[in-house]
Design brief:
elongated, alpha+beta, single chain, 2 domains, Serine Threonine Protein Phosphatase 5, Tetratricopeptide repeat, Porin
């Protein structure tokens, strides 16, 4: 297919999506004041952009015209003139108040597609699939998603925030510990310690398309937290490279994975291994996802911790509607350290709910429970260690407060680890105020 024919095909798809995107939603936005905007609608349909802009200027601020309709038609007029930033702003302003409107989300998705923001376009296209679209519209949305998968080249995500942490060293809150039947007072360093840090996160991918089904993808990520006391600074970096196979409504990839972690600005560990991940949207509202990582860890100063680590996650996402979803998942972790005392395995389960609300608010609520069992008796305490960790998190994002395409997020996370050995029990709370890229 030549580039010109490809562009014509995509324009045809856009027209089909716009034409079929749900009469009930269109009625809700457009038909309430059709008489007042009929001239504007006709100018947009005929591509008479100068006339359309004049009509928009006349309609803006009129109390007898629904401002939501004016915003919607502003977005369509801007999109027709390839003013993608202006169009996206108009559609987002509607979704900030009415995140359930599938037609508006479709228009935002195709605006971002034309702009080249593939991550944002795919995010919104996939969310519209839960809106009960007519078959022809669903088919066209899937073609857009497939076009994004075929053309994506690179992506970059960056986040920056401030992190107050009640227990930066995951220390116990117990003042004493019993060893061999005798009580010992714990030092300040061994007990929980609070602090305020700065967090930076960044991740990116680079994709090379080999065939319609096969790609090569490189990826990298870094997460760093710096505190006033540098001995608690923590940084993890990961890089990987490998092939990916694309199939209808899903993909799977295998990659070589290398990771390094520094703690207190000293090398803590290095690891090499393999990562396998994929997803499959087997129904309009259901997406299955899975990840498996197996790595060999090397600790330069803690040789007993060297060993193989296996981690897996399997999740099922249910798209309730264009504005909300639920994720359930189970995970398994096995640390086969050389020192039997350090060997452990854990099983966890999580539940998350994510929703866009009016007034530009988005919430993310997640909870996780996990049990970790150690293989050998802990020599200092003469007992087996068995931990139960409960984690829950609440995050709030203000979608309509944008600064250079970044929006603020405030999150609160609480950890409660109850161990059969009191010394390993702890509680921890983290508050993160940061900025992340708007989708």
């Amino acid at each position: 297919m030549t580039p010109s024919r490809s562009r014509a095909w995509l324009r045809a798809l856009m027209l089909l999506v716009a034409f079929h995107a749900g009469a009930s939603v269109a009625d809700d936005i457009v038909q309430r004041t059709r008489g007042a905007t009929a001239t504007l609608q006709r100018a947009i349909a005929e591509g008479q952009w100068e006339d359309a802009e004049k009509e928009l200027a006349l309609l803006t601020g009129r109390i007898d015209v629904d401002p939501t309709e004016v915003l919607f038609l502003t977005g369509l007029a801007a999109l027709g003139q390839k003013q993608y930033d202006r169009a996206a702003d108009a559609f987002r302003r509607i979704l900030d108040q009415r995140p359930d409107l599938a037609r508006v989300r479709l228009e935002l998705a195709r605006t971002l597609f034309e702009k080249g923001d593939d991550a944002g376009a795919r995010y919104h296209f996939e969310r519209t699939l839960s809106a009960g679209l007519p078959p022809v519209v669903e088919s066209n949305v899937r073609r857009f998603i497939e076009a994004i998968r075929q053309r994506r080249n690179w992506s970059l995500e960056v986040g920056l925030g401030i992190v107050p942490d009640s227990n930066i060293n995951t220390g116990t809150n117990q003042p004493t510990v019993t060893i061999a039947g005798l009580p010992f007072a714990l030092s300040t360093d061994a007990r929980e310690k609070s602090g305020v840090g700065v967090q930076l996160s960044a991740s990116g991918t680079k994709t090379v398309v080999l065939t319609p089904e096969w790609q090569i993808r490189a990826f990298a990520s870094v997460l760093r937290r710096d505190f006033a006391e540098s001995r608690y600074d923590d940084m993890t970096a990961r890089v990987g490279l490998g092939p990916r196979y694309l199939f209808p409504r899903g993909e799977v990839g295998v990659a070589y994975l290398h990771s390094e972690r520094q703690f207190g600005n000293d090398s803590l560990n290095r690891a090499d291994g393999v990562r396998v991940d994929g997803y499959w949207q087997f129904a309009p509202r259901l997406v299955a996802e899975a990840t498996l990582e197996r790595q060999r860890f090397d600790y330069p100063t803690l040789r007993g911790r060297n060993g193989d680590v296996l981690w897996t996650f399997n999740g099922l996402r249910y798209l309730i509607g264009p504005d909300q979803s639920v994720l359930v998942g189970v995970d398994y972790y096995n640390d086969h350290a050389e020192d039997p005392v350090l060997r452990n395995r854990s099983v966890g389960a999580m539940l998350g709910h994510y929703r866009d609300w009016p007034y530009g608010l988005t919430t993310a609520l997640t909870g996780r429970i996990a049990r970790t069992e150690y293989d050998a008796v802990q020599p200092l305490f003469g007992d087996y260690r068995d931990d139960r960790l409960t984690t829950w998190s609440v995050a709030l994002t203000k979608r309509d407060w944008s600064l250079f395409e970044f929006v603020p997020t405030l999150s609160f996370t609480a950890y409660d680890n109850q161990s059969s050995i009191d010394f390993y029990s702890f509680r921890r709370t983290q508050v993160l105020f940061g900025f992340n890229r708007r989708l």
